[in-house]
Amino acid sequence: MTNPALSPLFETLAIRQWSLKNRVVMPPMVTVRNIVGEDGIAWYSEHAEGGPGLVIIEATATPRFGQDLTVETLTPLVEAIHAKGALAAIQLFPVIISRDAELDLNELSLADIQTIVADYRRAARICQAAGMDGVQPHGAHGFLLNRFFSPAHNRRSDEYGGSLDNRMRLGLEIVRAIVDEVGSELMMLYRHTPVQADSYGLEESLAFARELVAAGVDVLDLSPSSKEAPGDLAAPFMQLGAKVITVGNLDKPERAEEALRESRADLVAIGRGLIADPNWANKLAENNADSITKCVRCDVMCFGNLRQRIPIACTQW
Ligand SMILES: Cc1cc2nc3c(=O)[nH]c(=O)nc-3n(C[C@H](O)[C@H](O)[C@H](O)COP(=O)(O)O)c2cc1C
């Protein structure tokens, strides 16, 4: 890796009133811990201490806000992340996560859709009051919001299905509701999958991204990238007026740097690499790359544990 003093990974980045101390992002990853309990706070505190500029807390169901997730319960989590020098955002999931697979979007009523939007609005307000810096609707990976966008899944015949305008509608309504509620006080992120084989391609995603940015999105988080050139699927989104995160197999520092140097992204998210070694960023900053505990892509105790609903861990610890 380049001398850390010259590495693009350690350049700061300004996003409206926020300043990220570097270009490294911890992407949302379900930990199977209680994010507002001792174990969850310890996890996020340790990861913030490891050096990323921005920590995005895992997919968290909006219906929980006002229930177990309140200003009081969330504030210690946010403070723990801030105390270690990182900004804190949270990924917001539209329904209780375990229900996603059983939900047929084609059968959701208009009242159900209004509830989804209202839940986002309420969740964002609570996040802002708890001191969060940003929120991110989860619009990626084939989950509910992504299925609304996907012509292969969305068979609705009302204003939420069919044409591209209609398939973009729910994502845009959510963003507009959050921006209306707390836009000036919260960084607005959106996670989207740029290409879904047999469903939609880059062109429709770019049209969506343009609308998201016009609606107030500050940061487009494009997931996943392909495994080929780092950030290749994020690069087309760089000219839309928002900052761009790319993610996927970037934990070899040279790959992360390449994505930044070739202007394919403004920020790089390191997922499993940060599970294997929460100190990834600090070790690089200290010119100590050799001491990084590397992810070996076994997926046994990260994705594997997640599937079994036991707290995620790593075989390399
Ligand atoms: C255990 C685990 C949980 C994840 N949970 C989420 C999640 O809550 N939301 C999300 O958008 N992506 C989730 N992801 C995907 C990651 O954010 C990231 O996009 C993916 O791991 C690819 O990056 P990597 O190659 O650096 O690991 C998860 C990944 C792992 C390993």
Quickly describe the structure.
The chain is of the alpha/beta class and 317 residues long.
- The total beta strand count reads 10
Number of helices: 10
CATH class: Alpha Beta
Measured distance between first and last alpha carbons: 23 Å
Low-confidence stretches: none
Instruction: Assign an overall shape.
Output: globular
Q: Give the topology string: H per helix, E per strand.
A: EEEHEHEHEHHEHEEHEHHH
The CATH architecture can be named as Alpha-Beta Barrel
Largest sheet: 8 strands, parallel, barrel
In CATH, the homologous superfamily goes by the name Aldolase class I
Which structural category fits the helices and strands? alpha/beta
Strand arrangement, major sheet = 3-4-5-6-7-8-9-10
Radius of gyration: 18 Å
What ligands are attached or bound here? flavin mononucleotide
Number of domains: 1
- Average pLDDT score: 97
By CATH, the topology is TIM Barrel
The portion of residues assigned to helices is 25-40%
What share of residues are in beta strands? 15-25%
Describe the structure.
By secondary structure, this protein is α/β, with parallel strands linked by helices. It has a single domain, classed as TIM Barrel. About 35% of the residues lie in helices and about 15% in strands. It has an 8-stranded parallel barrel with strand order 3-4-5-6-7-8-9-10, surrounded by 6 helices. Strands 1-2 form a two-stranded antiparallel ribbon. Strand 3, helix 1 and strand 4 form a beta-alpha-beta unit. Helix 1 packs parallel to helix 2, helix 3 runs parallel beside helix 5 and helix 5 runs parallel beside helix 6. The model has no long low-confidence stretch (mean pLDDT about 95). It binds flavin mononucleotide. The site of flavin mononucleotide (FMN) has 26 residues, from strand 4, helix 8 and helix 10.
